[in-house]
Amino acid sequence: MTKKMRSVFSVLLAAVLLACLCAVPAGAAARPLYVVLGDSIAYGSGLSNPTEAVYGRIVADTNRYAYENYAVPGHTTANLLRRLENDTVSAAVGRADIISISIGGNNFLLGDLNGILYDGIVKEDFARLDEITATFYEDLGTIVSTVRALNPKAAILLQTLYNPQTGYIGDVYQQGADRLNGAIRRFAAANPGEILIVEVAQVLTDSDRDFAEDRIHPSAAGNEKIARAVLRTLCDNGLGSETEPVINAPGRDARGAGMFTTFVNLYGRFFHVLAVIRNILRGLVR
Fold first, then answer.
1. What are phi and psi of 40, to 5 degrees?
2. Would you identify the CATH topology of the domain 31-285?
3. pTM, two decimal places
């Protein structure tokens, strides 16, 4: 090869390499950005490998979305509103094409749970749940309007709340879930087109398989069910084409974290005894 030919070859090779380098970021930028916000469910707290196997990652891997997760365990609607003030989070929301939100369960769990269980089991009084629901509805409106101010075009997916409990406390949990889910549906009806509801409550119904040992968070199987529900919602609304999840990293259930539910169940049994005594005394008074 002559010196001139080597020079021409070097120029052509450099041009090809430059074209390849330019093509990589362009291809990456073309992928829709899927941002996840919310609480421990969205974080993946029922898994020992949440980064790899939470439902948000499964959805992103299945539809080949770019993916960013800003969920924080323990967050309520009020916490999420403050989270949206964070520069990194607000920037991600502003760039997102699809935003998934799981929120509301901690409004109930952290809202004087013992008092709620006592009122519900002993007195059959759910006034505290009604107050929590009213605050949830107001906060939900502010969350959506805040997201819309940052991003007028992104699809917003909001998940319904499931009930992971059974027995005496399960009845009260169901009262809470029903109220919060009713608020979600009322908001969707009053604000058509603002949110897409993901019916998580309808798919997480197997208490033995869908939840981790803490009896609060979705297990690996539960996360796969949520992923399917999200994928169906996306597909139904023209935002995705796959309904069968791609599992690149099998989830591993978190172990040995059931003390909270154990104590709450003890409270439930104690309150049930109080309810029986209260009803007996009321019968004697009559």
1. -65, -25
2. Rossmann fold (3.40.50)
3. 0.83
